[in-house]
């Protein structure tokens, strides 16, 4: 599994370096339980540390704006998504499941990923705004693009005529806009959000076929019929 | 020891004049960096006249107030009973069980500190203990945070003090050290030297009637290990994630480490 390193601190040369990072991950994971109550904050991290039997002062290891906690969460969700998609692929390879058409695949993948945010949805807008802070953008962008690339990889897409960059851009746009819609959605089980997602994916697929048509016409322009010159 | 006996009474005044009042800012930054949550147990070693302790108490009190306010805001449909209970909570436990123990080797400094506390109205959550940084009179794994502000350079065996700090901290606990350090910028360094050797002892004579003690202070600052070296010493004592932050280009540095 690719390791996402997102702390800017330069590590020290001690033999315990690896377990230091592991401990930090454990603290952050433990802290997630306290996010609904405390938000993505040092308080949540302090509570998390306490459940591991550590002093609340250990939260001082992290940035006080909660950046690492959010990035840790995003990274965890992305890993979970990868595992899910990997499992699905295996099922298809074993013949136990049908390979989904691209639009269905994309919809399901994005929905699965966004659903992971639901337990924290109240504090999620706060998280998004923190991820947009300049010092976090490199890491948060990195996590986003690898997640998007991951989805396309498992989609095994043959049907669209997009090139690699277009795919990335298109799906990133779909994901981000759907996420925004979800944060303001009050419908039961976010059904409005999933309908929005369905439409956006459909648009993207249409765009692809429209792009194909444009390309075809450019290659094979209709032959001009001779104009009758009236005298 | 004698240096500080002479210095104890006029300590605060001298600090203000020597650092042009900036020491207050440095101490504020230290407590801000600590970001203590209510319920934190702090030991401030060589804490003398209580500067760090008072700032700590102010900080946790305001955090606690904010916490209680937030709790009220969250629960919109509280009964009058619950609201009054919350106000009572605030009154009866304004510090949220936070405590600070000020430990100093010098009786006079502790006395001066106690008087200042009384004068400023600090009573709860504060205790004063006579003790030696190289051999603290506390049990293992006791404190959440250990601070030593402008005290460690006067300790003869710094390694022992660091080991003691490690011992008395709980797992997950934090070590914070605020101390004069090495200025790398050559221009600033010359100005700083000039100021230290020409101005400070004179101030010492004028304000406290004691040239020699302040000459000693300035020299001890020069002898003290620079940032990286202190960092290595702290790591040797067992602390992890050790780092330092320079204030005013290195005139002062805050070192931080965790017992993990």
From TrEMBL, chain A:
Residues 1-21 are annotated as: Disordered. Residues 137-207 form the COQ9 C-terminal domain. Its main location: mitochondrion. Residues 20-50 form the Ubiquinone biosynthesis protein COQ9 HTH domain. One of its GO terms (cellular component) is mitochondrial inner membrane. One of its GO terms (molecular function) is lipid binding. Membrane-associated protein that warps the membrane surface to access and bind aromatic isoprenes with high specificity, including ubiquinone (CoQ) isoprene intermediates and presents them directly to Coq7, therefore facilitating the Coq7-mediated hydroxylase step. Participates in the biosynthesis of coenzyme Q, also named ubiquinone, an essential lipid-soluble electron transporter for aerobic cellular respiration. Belongs to the COQ9 family. Homodimer. Heterodimer; two heterodimers of COQ7:COQ9 come together on the same side of the lipid pseudo-bilayer and form a curved tetramer with a hydrophobic surface suitable for membrane interaction. These two tetramers assemble into a soluble octamer with a pseudo-bilayer of lipids captured within. Interacts with COQ7; this interaction allows ubiquinone (CoQ) isoprene intermediates presentation to COQ7 and facilitates the COQ7-mediated hydroxylase step. This is Ubiquinone biosynthesis protein. It comes from Bambusicola thoracicus (Chinese bamboo-partridge).
UniProtKB/TrEMBL annotation, chain B:
One of its GO terms (biological process) is methylation. InterPro entries: SAM-dependent_MTases_sf, UbiE/COQ5_MeTrFase, UbiE/COQ5_MeTrFase_CS. Gene3D superfamilies: Vaccinia Virus protein VP39 (3.40.50.150). One of its GO terms (molecular function) is 2-methoxy-6-polyprenyl-1,4-benzoquinol methyltransferase activity. It holds the Pfam family Ubie_methyltran. It comes from the Eukaryota. Keywords: Methyltransferase, S-adenosyl-L-methionine, Transferase, Ubiquinone biosynthesis. Methyltransferase required for the conversion of 2-decaprenyl-6-methoxy-1,4-benzoquinol (DDMQH2) to 2-decaprenyl-3-methyl-6-methoxy-1,4-benzoquinol (DMQH2). Component of a multi-subunit COQ enzyme complex, composed of at least COQ3, COQ4, COQ5, COQ6, COQ7 and COQ9. Interacts with PYURF; the interaction is direct, stabilizes COQ5 protein and associates PYURF with COQ enzyme complex. PANTHER family: 2-METHOXY-6-POLYPRENYL-1,4-BENZOQUINOL METHYLASE, MITOCHONDRIAL (PTHR43591:SF24), METHYLTRANSFERASE (PTHR43591). This is COQ5 protein. It comes from Bambusicola thoracicus. The lineage of its organism: Eukaryota, Metazoa, Chordata, Craniata, Vertebrata.
């Amino acid at each position: 599994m690719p390791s996402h390193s997102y702390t800017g601190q330069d590590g020290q040369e001690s033999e315990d370096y690896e377990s230091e990072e592991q401990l930090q991950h454990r603290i952050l994971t433990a802290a997630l339980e306290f996010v609904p109550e405390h938000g993505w904050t040092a308080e949540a991290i302090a509570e998390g540390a306490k459940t591991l039997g550590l002093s609340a002062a250990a939260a001082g290891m992290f940035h006080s704006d909660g950046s690492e906690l959010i990035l840790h969460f995003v990274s965890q969700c992305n890993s979970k998504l990868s595992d899910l998609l990997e499992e699905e692929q295996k099922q298809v390879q074993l013949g136990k499941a049908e390979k989904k058409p691209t639009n269905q695949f994309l919809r399901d993948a994005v929905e699965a990923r966004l659903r992971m945010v639901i337990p924290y949805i109240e504090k999620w807008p706060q998280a998004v705004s923190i991820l947009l802070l300049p010092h976090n953008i490199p890491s948060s962008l990195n996590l986003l693009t690898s997640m998007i690339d991951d989805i396309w990889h498992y989609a095994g897409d043959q049907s669209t005529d997009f090139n690699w960059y277009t795919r990335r851009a298109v799906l990133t746009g779909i994901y981000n806009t759907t996420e925004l819609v979800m944060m303001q959605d009050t419908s039961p089980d976010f059904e409005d959000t999933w309908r929005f997602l369905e439409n956006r994916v459909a648009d993207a697929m249409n765009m692809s076929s429209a792009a194909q048509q444009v390309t075809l016409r450019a290659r094979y322009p209709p032959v001009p019929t001779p104009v009758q010159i009236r005298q | 020891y004698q240096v500080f006996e002479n210095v104890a009474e006029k300590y605060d005044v001298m600090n203000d004049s020597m650092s042009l009042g900036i020491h207050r800012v440095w101490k504020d930054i230290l407590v801000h960096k600590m970001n203590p949550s209510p319920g934190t147990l702090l030991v401030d070693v060589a804490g003398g006249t209580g500067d760090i302790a008072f700032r700590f108490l102010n900080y946790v009190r305001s955090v606690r107030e904010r916490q209680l306010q937030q709790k009220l805001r969250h629960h919109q449909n509280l009964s009058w009973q619950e609201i009054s209970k919350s106000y009572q909570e605030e009154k009866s436990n304004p510090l949220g069980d936070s405590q600070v123990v000020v430990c100093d080797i010098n009786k006079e400094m502790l006395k001066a500190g106690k008087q200042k506390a009384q004068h400023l109205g600090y009573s709860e959550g504060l205790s004063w203990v006579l003790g030696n940084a190289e051999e603290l009179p506390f049990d293992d794994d006791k404190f959440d945070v250990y601070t030593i502000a402008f005290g460690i350079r006067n300790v003869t065996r710094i390694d022992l003090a660091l080991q003691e700090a490690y011992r008395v901290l709980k797992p997950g606990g934090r070590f914070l050290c605020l101390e004069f350090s090495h200025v790398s910028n050559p221009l600033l360094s010359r100005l700083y030297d000039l100021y230290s050797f020409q101005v400070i002892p004179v101030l010492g004579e004028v304000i406290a009637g004691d040239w020699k003690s302040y000459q000693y202070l300035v020299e001890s600052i020069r002898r003290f290990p620079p940032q990286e070296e202190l960092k290595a010493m702290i790591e040797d004592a067992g602390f992890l994630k050790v780092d330092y932050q320079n204030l005013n280009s290195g005139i002062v540095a805050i070192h931080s480490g965790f017992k993990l």
